Amino acid sequence: MSEAPHTVKSYEEELKNLNSNIVKMGGFCEEALVKATQAIISRNSDNAETVIKDDEKIDKYETLVEQQVVNLIALRQPMAIDLRETVTALKISSDLERIGDLAKNISKRTLLLNENLPKNLTEALIRVSSNVQKQLKSILDAYLDRSSAMAVNVWEGDEHIDDLTNLCMQEVIKYLKEDEKNLDDGTHLLFVTKNIERIGDHTTNVAEQVYYLVTGEYLEGDRPKGTEPIVTGEK
Amino acid sequence: MIKISAKNVDVFYGKKQALFNINLDIEENQVTALIGPSGCGKSTFLRCLNRMNDVIDICKVQGEIVINDFNINDKGCDVVRLREKIGMVFQKPNPFPKTLYENISYGPSIHGMAQSKQEMDEIVEISLKKAALWEEVKDRLHEPGTGLSGGQQQRLCIARAISVQPEVILMDEPCSALDPIATAQIEELIDELKKEHTIIIVTHSMAQAARVSQRTGFFHLGELIEHGLTDKIFKNPDNTKTQDYITGRFG
Ligand SMILES: Nc1ncnc2c1ncn2[C@@H]1O[C@H](COP(=O)(O)OP(=O)(O)OP(=O)(O)O)[C@@H](O)[C@H]1O
Ligand SMILES: [Mg+2]
Predict the structure, then answer these.
(1) Is residue A235 part of a domain?
(2) Is the ipTM above a cut-off of 0.90?
(3) Spatial CA neighbour of B22 closest among B54, B58, B47, B55
(4) Nearest residue on chain B to A8, judged by CA atoms?
(5) How far is A18 from chain B (nearest CA, A)?
(6) Better-scored residue on pLDDT, A66 or B179
C-alpha cells in the first residue's frame, strides 16, 4: 500500500491487518496444494492428513477476514482504494477458502487410493498441479505488489491450465480402461484432476479481484478458455 | 443538460485569492456535491452562484457564471430575481423570528406570487408538504418558527427556499447540526426535490456526498481538483489528492 497513511492510525492498522491476513491465508493455500500433490505422487498419507487437518486454519482465517471486513464497513465506511481493499479482501478470502476445501478433498481421496499409479499419469498430474501452484504463487505476489500486470498474466494463464487438465484427464481415462480394478482409483483421480483445475479457476477469480483492486476497473472480455473438457464417458 | 456553467472563476477577499480559475458545469435536475477540507472555498463558490458574495465588501468575483445562457455577473443581472431563482439553505437553520406561516409566505409575497389569501395558503401548504414537514406542523402554523426542533427548523428553511419555486437550491452543510433521523429526512427530501430542482450541496460527510449526489467536485486550497460522477470519485478517483481526502489520509 503506497498511499500516505491515514490520519486515524487504528484505521491504518486495520487495513494492514486485513491485508496481511489475506497474505497468510494465501500462504496456507499454497502449502496445502503443494502437500496435497506430494501426497498423491509419493503416496504419503502423513502429508495428506496434514492437509486435511490444516484446512481448519484456512477456514478460521476466512471467518476472521469476514469479521474484519464487516467491522471496517460499519465503523470506517471505507472509500475509494480503501473500499476496494475491503471488498476484494472479502471476495479473495472466499476463493481461498474454496481452494483450501479442494486441497482437502484431494487429500481425502489420496488416502483412499490403493494401487501404485503409472508414471505417465503421475507426470501429467505433477504438470497441471505445478502450473496451478505457479499461478497461485504469482497471484499472491501480485496481490502483495498491487500489480495489475501480474494479475493479467495469471488470468491469461488459466487457458494453459485447462489444456493441461485435459491431457491429465486423458491419462486417467487411459488408466481406467486398462483394468477393471482401476475403477475406484481412477474415479478418485478424475475428481483429483478436476479439483486441481478448479483451484486454478479460483486463482483466476483472485486475479480478477486483484486487477479490480489495483485499477478500479473490471477485467474486460470473456475468460480465457482452453480446449473443451473431455466428458468422462467419452471413448 | 447543463444548468450552470462556471467559467474561469476567480474570487478574492481583499488581496487574498480564495478561488483559482474554477471551471465547473452543473447538470440540471441532479445533485452535485462539493467536498473538500475546511477553508478550501466551497462556501465561497456556492455564494458565487447567487451573487451572495456581493454583500461582502472586500469580496471580488471574476469570471463567468452562466445560468440558462445568461452570465449572472453581467451588469444587467437583476439580483433580486436571481436569488428568487437560486434559493439557499444554510448550515444552521435560520428561521425568521416570525410564525411558521410567515416564514414561508414572506418570499412569495415580496415576489408577488399570490393574488389572494387562499393562494398564499396553498403555497404554504405545498411548500411544507414538499419539505416533508406539513404533517408535523399543520396545526401550529401560527406559532413561531423558532419553536421547532433543529431538524424541523431546517426543513422549514427548505420549505421557505422552495416556496418561491427556485430552479436551483444551494445547500451549505444543511445537515451538520442534525441527528441521524433528521439527516435521513433531509436526504430523502433532496432525492425528491431533484426532480424539480437542480441541487448543489456542500457537505463534510463523505458518506452523505456519496449517498445523495450524482456528481461530486473536490476543492482543495481554492482549486477544483477533480469533478465527475460521484460513483467514480468515491470508488476510483483519478487524483491522489482526492483519494487522500476522501479516505482520510490528509495530513
Ligand atoms: N468574509 C470573508 N472575508 C475574508 N476571507 C474570507 C471570507 N469568507 C471566506 N474567507 C476565506 O476564503 C477561504 C475559503 O473560505 P470558505 O468559507 O469558502 O471555505 P469552505 O470550504 O466553505 O470552508 P468550511 O468547510 O470550513 O465551511 C478561506 O481561506 C477563508 O478564510
Ligand atoms: Mg463553508
Answers:
(1) no
(2) no
(3) B47
(4) B248
(5) 16
(6) A66
